[in-house]
Amino acid sequence: MDNNHKADDKNSINSAEVTADIPNDLKDMEALSHYIKSVAGVRQARSIPPLDQWQPEQTIDMDLVIKANGEWWHEGTHMTRESLVSLFATILWKEEINGKVEYFLKTPVQKLRIKVEDAPLLINDVGIVTEDAVSWLEFSTSTGDIVRLDQQHQLELRPFYTNDTTESSATPQVRPYMLVRNGLEALVGRNTFYHLTQIGKLTAEQGVTTLTLHSGGQDYELFMPDEG
After folding, report:
1. Distance (Å, rounded) from C-alpha 95 to C-alpha 1?
2. How far apart are CA 128 and CA 137, in angstroms?
3. Contact, 181 vs 194, CB < 8 A?
4. Mind listing the pLDDT tens digit for each residue in 130-154?
5. Which residues does residue 106 pair with via DSSP β-bridges, in sequence order?
């Protein structure tokens, strides 16, 4: 019992130290990077911090855009350091405010409002894994998330309207999405989705093409749009 109390005290001290070391301006990329790494040092591996438990009082805007193709741009410059993008992705947060969905990089003291053109995450790989004789479709994002197709993480096809299209447009793009974590969705990349059409079973009936995917002992159906 005493040992447990000592462990709890140690965790509390570590958390207090991390909070005390938060820089005043987390809009600075280097400062934010160093801060996230310090928090990660208290946790295990690449675990996602307890974002739902953080209640920052301050919200500020940050010139960071996640493009519709999954690229991250800061102050007009493409962020090409994958390790840095993956690090920032661990504190991605989504909220609905006054009926509008907004995205942030969330810390215990600040929410940094960013712009997301489509989905904040990008799935760039899929494979089949077998556990206890059960096969699963396992998806990986470009920023290190791994998620399996199941009842809580299903695929959905829906229209995406670019700046050049509106809801009245006759030909919006139809894109596949998957729920990953904390309400965050990932766009399934074109090559990955093509791989899914090879893994799964395509059937056509009465002008409707259906992609059936098997994962975790269950079948999941996607009704493909008519390309004609």
Report:
1. 39
2. 5
3. no
4. 999 999 999 999 999 999 999 999 9
5. 111
